[in-house]
Task: structure prediction
Amino acid sequence: MRWYILLLSVMLCISSVNTTQAQLFDALKKKLSEKKDDDKEEKKEEKKSYSDLLKDFESQNGLFQLHTKGTKLYFEIPDSLLGREFLLASRVSATSNNKEIVAGQMPRQPLLIKFSKDAEKIYMHVVNSDNVCDENSDTYKSLQRNYLNPIMKSFSIKAFSPDSLATVIDMTKFFSSDEKELNPFKKKSILDIIFGKTPMSGTYDAKSSGILSSKSFPLNINVRSRLAYTVDDAPFVAELTRSIILLPKTPMKPRISDSRLGFFTEGKIVFDENKDKVERIRYINRWNIEPKKEDLEKYKNGELVEPIKPIVYYVDTAIPEKFRKYIMQGIEDWQPVFEAIGFKNAIVAKEYPKNDPDFDPDDIRYSCYRFVTTTVANSMGPSWVDPRSGEIITGDVLYYSNVIKLLHNWRFVQTANLDPQVRGEVFPTELMGKSLRYVAAHEIGHTLGLMHNMGASHSYPVDSLRSASFTQKYGTTPSIMDYARYNYVAQPGDEGVRLTPPDMGVYDYYAIKWGYKPIFEAKTAADEYETLNKWILEKANDPMYHYGPQQFFFDKIDPASQSEDLGDNSVKAAEYGMKNLKYTMKHLKEWTTTPNKDYSRMKELYGEIFKQFRRYMGHADAYLGGYYLYEPVAGENRKASVLVSKKEQRYALDFIFNNLRDMPNWLLDNEIVDCFRPDDMKLGEYTRIITKGLFSSKITVHLSWDEKKNPNNDYSVLEYMDDLFDRTFALTKKGENLNFYERTLQYTYIKQLLTDAGYFSGSSLKKRSFSMDEENVIYPWEKMNVELESLVRPGKEADVKANMNPIYLHELQKAVKLLKKNMNKGDFKTQIHYKNLYKQISDFLQK
Result:
């Protein structure tokens, strides 16, 4: 009642001139009266006898007894399960709008819950599992006092079972209302926050919502509900399956993560009386794969045995039959990986069963490979985990139907120069099937707990990717978890070269061994460290076993850990890739058009070629101000970070300038671009974006920081800025006329130099903003207006700013001398361009 009084006080203070205090008081008085009536009604309701309450109800036995009548749903919770821990999860079973929410999706992570009761109510608690403490220690008493399990919901007791060993509660409202943690809408993600995007949400329509069905099984309960909303003034409905699954009394023995391998993890805070600090550790996500009791000795003797509970993935029969076998192959490609650690048939693929009434793909007990009909080109492999231990309970793959478009376009732009099969509008079934097999193996890797390993492909020498013997054995990367798609390095004439990733790579075998192989002699997770560290050190000097974490596209620091790149030198690989793009461009009209049909396919693939061109430029950009990052341990002769060498950075800078200048010569093929509208071409805009990005704070801050740390470092920020100047004005020094793109390059360079020097903004090193259509190109972090937070965390310190301002002045003074010398040279457009730049710099210098 106190909150009503508080609300009344506030509203009386802020009432508008059009609303009297009396009116507000009457409205709140009415609300208070309604609440009192509700409370009285609840208090007046007497507990009925078990038989009277459940008269005409249908009952199901299982984890809890379920009692249903129409839309009413009662749970009968045994006292023996009070205090036990459950997962409460929600999955979208069907949707009227799959723009952001698709059938099969798990919008939120499940909740760890437990139930308690008193004389009047059953309470649903959210269990705090973030803290780890020995229950026998003195500290544990304090932990219990300071980390209570909060109550999420309370339910009035309706009746007791005849033997008084179970309690009946009404769950109708819980499963038919808009419970925040169980509704169909996703939480705001970090990318939503960065891009200022508001995720889909709606106004709940209680009258159109309700429970559709419920099932009880020995270890879990499923309740299917229809939830109706109004979203953007339009009706929206989703059917959701909520699952409550009983967890083991004793959690699986966890395995503590190590940053030298890539696993999804659960964070923990450890309170240990024997340590001088509170520790933070992480448990890896993994399935509970262990030998049967009767096979334990066989397993220890090196014989292959089947695990107690194999991982079974059920494949959606809505997937076109012609592709199903390839997806099942991709799932079972992981079988030999588990065989290498002693388990046979550890992963099995089966189609959805036809005659099993208990099978429900939305039941948390089943891991499924689901087909989603949508225009979105994507695929993902989420999983649900027991947060107490990191044990994976279920894992799904969402196969978005339009992912084949993505695969088609990648394969075309990266390998059409070598493979005639990918030039057609529709790929042969086997070719597309093999691509879908790759996607399946990759996504299943995620459901096994593995993160992306973007550093894997960096272990291969670039020229080895042109070798038939090497690529047939190793593919394009030593890990299926890398984003190394197709072999864009291979050139026409490279006979027998494999163009695709491997079925499995050596890193995948290594990671599964590290994450899943039992260590019987270890009693606790901490006891496993010596063995786990030994396995890592055995491979520490072999780059094929290196793990490179995925970097945000706006925060690329390590050029050895990039997505969509190949080989140990991404710039050299990109040079080969550029040759192939130019070859494909020459034949684009021939390969993509049909007489008497429009140019839509040619236009789309032209856009994909331009996109691939930008990827190659982005690969080179990562070298500028970049660091090679490592995870050394004591005793290793290795630094945590090493600045990319001057030679590599200059090589990357030359690549960027050479290809920026060459870009219009082949991307503006008149035979092709004359088929498009003028506004379809954005090469000038891209020139501006690239040039501005060369002033990125990532580059200048990293170079300055490294110079401060090591005054005799390999590449100073002054040298970089001088190199930038020399390449920007290379044609001016040669006395050549400047075309539109060259003038755009120089104009953007000078404008950005003046901006950073404080001419336009009044302060140096000011962040710049980009339009939304630029966010997926090369320097999107600037659009987000966020500080660069690299893994080495140099920070934008005052001394960096102080160091940069004299350098900006130095570069401007050089520019004004060069422009003055050349302002009357060249054609008319070149001359007025020079005069304009000269005036802008002169105005600044005379301030």
